[in-house]
Amino acid sequence: MRDIELTVEQRKALNERARVRRNRSRSAHFEARRRAYQDHGHELARERDPSHVAGCMLYWAEGSKSRNAAQFVNSDPAMVRFFMDFLRAHYGVRNEEFRLHCNLFADHVERQSEIEQFWLELVGLPASCLRRSTVNVYSKHSQKKRQNKLPYGTVRLTVHSTRVVQSIYGAIQEYGGFERPEWLD
């Protein structure tokens, strides 16, 4: 068989099949890893620590449902602080792993630095964790009705960690008594 010459098209087809096989193998590997993280979350939930329950329920309500990153958005300083403390206490997330992004309104422009500093100090993060803020401008039809509604805008906390988010998903499923297979995909 080694003496048989393959055409360029045949070689491409063989290479494509090998690539697909490798990708399937890698997908299965990473899905198994996500499943193990969720199993860990189920175990944590069985301990019924009240602060863990509260943090997971906050995430279920206010967090993004990403597969590889825990993102939490809110305007309530106490809630944001509680969620940060939850991640630090239950998942050992270090300051340098957090990313903080502010979403501000047009009436915040003059106070942008002050507001960014407020959030950084509130959660005890260094300025290196701050990402560029978004400033929403008023549309010509808004009549500026929302001025001063949220004095510090909203903040998004992000931790890029499959381990953390999948463990939270496992705990949520344990607390809620349901299975959500799409959280593994």
Explain the overall architecture.
The protein is of the alpha+beta class and 185 residues long. The chain has one domain (10-183). The chain is 51% helix and 12% strand. The protein is built from 5 helices and 4 strands; from the N terminus they run H-H-E-H-E-H-E-E-H. A 4-stranded mixed beta sheet has the order 1-4-2-3. Strand 2 (98-105), helix 4 and strand 3 form a beta-alpha-beta unit. It is extended. The relative contact order is 0.19. The mean pLDDT is 90.
Core attributes:
alpha+beta; 4-stranded mixed beta sheet; 4 strands; 12% strand
Reconstruct the topology from this structure:
Elements (H helix, E strand, L loop, with lengths): L7 H39 L3 H13 L7 E5 L2 H15 L6 E8 L6 H12 L10 E3 L17 E6 L2 H15 L9
Parallel strand pairs: 2-3
Antiparallel strand pairs: 1-4, 2-4
Distance between the termini: 40 Å
H/E element order: HHEHEHEEH
Task: State the low-pLDDT regions, or none.
Answer: none
Report the sheet with the most strands, covering strand number, pairing sense and barrel closure. Answer: 4 strands, mixed
Percent of residues in beta strands? 5-15%
- Compute the number of strand runs: 4
Strand order of the largest sheet: 1-4-2-3
Q: How many domain units?
A: 1
The Rg value, from CA coordinates, equals 22 Å
- Fraction of residues in H or I helices: 40-55%
Question: On the 0-100 scale, what is the average pLDDT?
Answer: 90
